[in-house]
Amino acid sequence: MKKLDWTITVPVILLVLLMGCEQRSTAEQNWTHYVRTSGHGLSLGAVDDIIKGATETHLFGIEVDNSLTGYYESFLDPTAKLEAINAVVATAHAAGHRIFLYTEGLETITSDADQKEHTFFKDHPDWVQRNIAGEPAIFGGESAFWIREGDEDVWISPYAQEWRDLYMERVRQIAGTGIDGVYVDIPYWMTHFDGWEDSWASFDDYTVAAFRKQTGLNAKTDIRLGDMNDPAFIQWINFRIRSITDFMADVDRNAKSVNPKCMTIAEIYPGIDESAVRVGSDVYELYEVVDVIAHEYNEGGYTAANRSPIHWFEYMTGMFTFRSFAQGKASWMLSYSWDGEENIEPRQAMENMFLSQIMAGTNPWDARGHVMSGSNDYAARTEIFKWIGEHEKTFYLPRESVDPIGVYFSPVTRNFFPRELETAYKGIMYQLLQTHTEFQIVTPRTLGDFQGQVLILPEVKCVSDEEVALFSEHFSKGVTLVVTGETGKYNAVRQHRETNPVHAILGIDPAEGRKISTGDQRFIFIPECPGGAYYKQAHQEFNSYAERGEYLEAPFYRASRDFVREVLQVAGMEPAVQVDTSPFVASQIARVDSRLHVFLANFTGLVAKERAVPIPVENVTISFPGKASAKVHLLPFLGEMREIAGQWQDGVLTVVIPEIQRGAVVWLNE
């Protein structure tokens, strides 16, 4: 998507500032983990201003955009745009910056197409995606804000091999400039413009032929579109996700074939909901084949200024989930802070957004409004990004679990039962975040390595035989399983199982209803998932209490505490680190650089579109296991690190923080 604001200009500053650019060792992690960025329109005349402005506002990792593959003219002849890329790469590297180039994936525009004999579609109608009726994915200025009147916007099949060969040649040419990253936007099947949402495209000849080759099925005649009970449609869903994943893997291979250090970055908007299935860009799958994902993720409100407290927890849940999918790779957040909300100061919205992102371990992206470039407040960005840079290792070194409760995320269940999985999973995560219980999000890729004492399976309806075997192995080793809803009812391709293998592991008859075992093998079976119920309850109650900062008598507060308390009691588990504070504070407990850390983000008192300054929380109590000689440090958001005194008794060091405003990190030094 072409989202740069070309009206923003960056003030020119003295060239000497270039020499002050931050340097870092990349021995532990590559540069992508420390990015704090914004976008810039690229031309030869803009190169010096881009680099100077980035230095002045403490960016690290600079996005530039000249849409080399996104416009038909430069796709055919990239000479001029490659010249600009070479120039900005040389200037950026001389100044110590890292730089990456935005370009489009499966979308291309022919500018002023209504005045041209040759356009992408006129020259290559067979390359374009189509719906089941054969209508091409071709659009004009009314379809999206980045398409001008008179332009032709087309969406291309990744199976149009002649186009794909030329596209990969352009990727190699971009990487060959020595650039640090190739950033590919919108690698989607066209299902997100008006009228295409239920199309489940594409049915162009190239794609239909590829599907027939892989499955033996004719996509035009053998599928009942939208019918999750149709095995052929299940194959179509899997094929579409696999196709986009393979396309991005191909981009990565081609970029690294000429520049092994070039990072491949995918920008996608789907999070953990059904949109991933529709557009075919599955964040879980893509993390395996790219180096970074830039998440245009705006759950619960398009801007930070629009977000209510419960939606901040929804947003945090999404980010923590992305970090679990990433498995050590970086996660960038192309989210938006403010877009004209009259009662909110831009700076306050920016602070809330950046706070939430760094507390989740993700990387911030500043932008003006809903584009990719500029800023709503350059002075605020400069101050905040400088502070993040000074404390970057606190936020971006790897976070390791201590003694977590595991929460299982099932991508396959998300594919075929998206709403049930989403609400159940988010409801469980809300309860752990709001009770300040250490958690670890577990996926099929990390299930075998899980070391926690408890694993919650929230409506994991679809499970493979491999997953069943690992659930059984963990259970036999003493892990407490919390099984909810219809977990285990279907296999990995949504076929109903005659015998539920998860019930067999527990040795239960689900007809008997709720059941708890506290013997050698401990479990809780709950026929109605408490996650789904809590999701509904929290969305009804949470905001009204959070606006006032009151919670002790709130039904949602009792429900979350009762659930977590029961899980801990059945498991015979005592949390390693204990945090006592408001449920309107989101927390993560983790070990960073061998030290116990608690990351805290306060959303008390926030009101969507009305109030972006949180009510401070008082007397936050944290208990660490440690020696009497240990020291505890506090780093308030945008503040200075300081040591805080605690009381030690029986191997536990307890500190009380008189007040936390927007957020803070607290850690133990032994």
Any descriptors?
19 helices; 34% helix; Rossmann fold; alpha/beta; 670 residues; 7-stranded parallel β-sheet; globular
In short, what is this structure?
With about 675 residues, the protein is of the alpha/beta class. It has a domain at about 405-535: Class I glutamine amidotransferase (GATase) domain (Rossmann fold, 3-Layer(aba) Sandwich). The strands form 5 sheets. It has a 7-stranded parallel sheet.
Description:
The protein has 670 residues and is α/β, with parallel strands linked by helices. It has a domain at 405-533: Class I glutamine amidotransferase (GATase) domain (Rossmann fold, 3-Layer(aba) Sandwich). The protein contains 19 helices and 26 strands. The strands form five sheets. A seven-stranded parallel beta sheet has the order 1-2-6-7-8-9-10. Helix 10 (309-326) links the parallel strand 8 and strand 9.
